[in-house]
Predict the 3D structure of the following.
Amino acid sequence: MGVPKSKRSKKRNRQRRANQKINAPKLISCPQCHALIVPHRVCPECGYYNGKEVVAK
């Protein structure tokens, strides 16, 4: 069974965890109403997706 030879220091753990941050979502503008939306989702402002009205507003 694999056993670590020595303790991992606090610095080493913190350096490894420094890259595990949350990224901001990528936003695009809606072609109908030009509001910022997440790609591949129905626009919450106008209810359009792919040029068609999906949700009546």
